[in-house]
Amino acid sequence: MSQTENLLFELGTEELPPKALKTLAESLINSVKKALDENEVSYGDGKMIAAPRRIGFILNNVAVEQKDKLIDREGPFIDKAYDADGNPTKAAIGFANACGVDFEKLQVIEHKKGKRLFYQIDQKGQKTRELLPEIILAALKKLPVPKMMRWGSHDFQFVRPVHWIMCLFGDKVLDIEAYGRKSNNFSYGHRFHSPEKVEISSADQYFDVLKTKGHVLADWDERKEKMLEQIKAISTDKRLNVVLDASLVDEVNAIIEWPMALCCQFDARFLRVPQEALISAMQEHQKCFAMTDEKGKLTHQFITVSNINSKHPQTVISGNNKVMAARLSDAAFFYDNDIKNPLEYYVEKLKSVTFQKALGSMYERSVRIAENAKALSAYTLVDENMAYEAGFLSKADLMSDMVFEFTDLQGVIGKYYARSHGKDDLICESIEQQYWPKFAGDALPESPLAKTVALAEKLDTLVGIFGIGQKPTGDKDPFALRRAAIGVLRILKEGKIHLPLKNLFDIGSHAYKDSALNAPVISPLTQFLMDRLKYIYKDEGVSSEVFESVASVDYADIADFDQRISAVEVFAKSKPAAALIQSNKRVANILAKADNLEALSIDKRLLKQDEELELYQSMLEVERKLEISLKAQDYVKALDSLSTLDQPVSDFFDAVMVFSEDDTLKNNRLALLYKLEQLFSQVANISKLS
Known about the structure:
Elements: E1 4-13, H1 18-38, E2 46-51, E3 54-63, E4 69-77, H2 78-81, H3 90-99, E5 107-111, E6 114-123, H4 128-141, E7 162-169, E8 172-173, E9 177-178, E10 181-184, E11 186-188, E12 197-199, H5 206-214, H6 220-237, E13 241-242, H7 246-253, E14 260-265, H8 275-285, E15 289-292, E16 298-306, H9 313-338, H10 343-349, E17 354-356, E18 360-361, H11 362-380, H12 384-393, H13 401-405, H14 412-420, H15 425-433, H16 448-467, H17 481-494, H18 501-512, H19 522-539, H20 544-551, H21 558-572, H22 577-592, H23 610-631, H24 635-643, H25 646-655, H26 663-680
Parallel strand pairs: 7-10
Antiparallel strand pairs: 1-3, 1-7, 2-3, 4-6, 5-6, 7-8, 9-10, 11-12, 13-15, 14-16, 15-16, 17-18
Helix pairs in contact: 1-4, 8-9, 11-12, 11-16, 11-18, 12-15, 12-16, 14-15, 15-16, 16-17, 16-18, 17-19, 17-21, 20-21, 21-24, 22-25, 22-26, 23-24, 23-25, 23-26
């Protein structure tokens, strides 16, 4: 008899929510795997089943039973196991009964608290067939269903009505009942091509039989690969590039069982509308794939993926063309209507929209962003009038019909509308790029003006929300402050903008003037940003020790901080680093035992030993070089200069007793070490490096 069998489970339903399908299927197989692990049932590789009308899984080489195992049971201590006459107590008899044996079968073992009764139970492994129904039913209950529903006159609840259950362990049906359905050994094919029952005799045959007899590609990856092959074949044939949004690919894959990609087209006159709006309409509303030419310009051809292999594909194409024309007509109407008015017209309308109850309207927010941008222009070296105008117009498109319909295009639409009314290209691009970066790893604003407006926009949000005491807690971050903070940090860091955080937050606070800010801003916001900065460097592979070594000294700004991080990383890998780090730790430990170090000064006449005099003279030479390097913010060179102190420091500790019995000598040597620590802290706290 085989020691393993393959397990197949399929739950057949009405069409499942496309955006939830993959998550539901992954959750199901992962829950079953976890339960098998907990029950110590081994299994091999597996594959999820995920198609519009079915979720499930196949697990190969599932052990037919649990492994036998020995279970140690400890009973009462000997003094509680026998009465005064030497007879077993009720507690002892109860323990024997619990173990399922006579009292005489019990053993006595030594325990750290004394001797006690003991029995080792040889527990036979349970048949996997007996465990699986409960495991699968429990996994179904744990599915992250977005919204439950009932159907018919039943009380059953699931994301969609359930029509069949198929479950095979080996070639035998596993008895499961759920949602008013009993498991069987058949599935159903494509709703139109092959709606009849499809009998499955084993898990090995499932995917192939359903494909050949049922016209269903139930394997998520296989179906996705076939769809992409068809899409790319069409775009290659047309000598065009297809816009493949990853989330759209998954969504389309979740609404088809038998992919058939077709090339469609719309009236080329619609191309006067911003292509981002047209692409958004195709993707969000019609689930179609746009195509662009070699210059990235949208064409009037697009790809739809049908769920049927029609005998009359031109009819399907014609239908898609008509539906797309209707959808794009809406977009064209909104665009043609919006474009009649300049952005200033929409800015006035912002007075009727609230940004946040305590922080005023979106119009007031636009004014603050403009003032922030104007103040920041001194640091980003852009024209202050252009900065103010770009900031003032930044939110205007929120009142346009296009953004109301295509909310994901805020900023993008503003760019087009600004350009159509003759605004400077830099202002147009800044209106779009104020939202950059939108997610981790996203591109940063490109021009100095765009960086200025993006900083101004994020700064207003951070200062305002912190200023009314609503900083993020746990997973709650309704104003996306963490994303805004990361955006600010990346713009300052990667844009090499030398702007101290205190100055930044002062600018943001000043724009609010006499508004409702009632909570401290600078200190909590600085800590908030530094916490985010630590994560940024962690993702870049910078150790926490390197980060803390720089964070614990006086740095000018985030750009300066980044230069120091780079220098310390180089230094930490150099030959003299290890010895110098240990010396610094020793210096720090010694100075930690001393008080009032600031009041001490070095008296050269008291440097009696050659080693302390050598250290002193080396420090003077390094201090001179350091001053030049620090002025140029050349921290690599500064650390190279400091590394030359390695030998003098080592010699000093080998030969000099710091805590001399002579207080005058002791204080002079402490002053020398304090001076040494100050030299190193001008770049980073080297003692924090491991």
